[in-house]
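quick one, two chains, predict together pls
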Amino acid sequence: NAGVTQTPKFQVLKTGQSMTLQCAQDMNHNSMYWYRQDPGMGLRLIYYSASEGTTDKGEVPNGYNVSRLNKREFSLRLESAAPSQTSVYFCASSGGGTTLVYYEQYFGPGTRLTVT
Amino acid sequence: AQSVTQLGSHVSVSEGALVLLRCNYSSSVPPYLFWYVQYPNQGLQLLLKYTTGATLVKGINGFEAEFKKSETSFHLTKPSAHMSDAAEYFCAVSGGWDDKIIFGKGTRLHILP
């Protein structure tokens, strides 16, 4: 099992450019999450998807959109990147499946995004 | 609603000394509590968790934590620090198996030779 995978690992964007961060999990989990991590701020939830076909806003959704493409994949889109979106982005998943545990979250390795 | 407070954004201990990372939580329902570790340039990895039952929980790499309801605390300890323990540690709380997890701001652990 690869667990949770994220692409790309690194990205540099200019202000106003758009991009999509990809996330996939192979544990048959129901729920998926996008977080951003900034120094001294911990992890802040951007969006989550409790099940295939549903998405909900987290703590800091402004400037982002998400798509739960299928049970495996959950993408995060920045339509018009801003320097304030410079951060490390983590995808996570949870909810039964092959791990048989509903409440623990499993994290991907992260995407380091810089917006200039 | 749930919240987590980690006391100390940076903690330094000597190699071989006791590690104590403090976490206090607030929850309107019986909490699920977690400690995650993040090594440099990596994602978060679960160290240990408390859901129900025994209040002293043991995790990987010799870490353990004790759930104290009266003190609303879930402090992380390790008897003897190792250089490889240098990382950032996150305490987290959830309201139940289907609830979102709320993370603390993290404590960076430095190990002094």
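Chain A has a mean pLDDT of 92.
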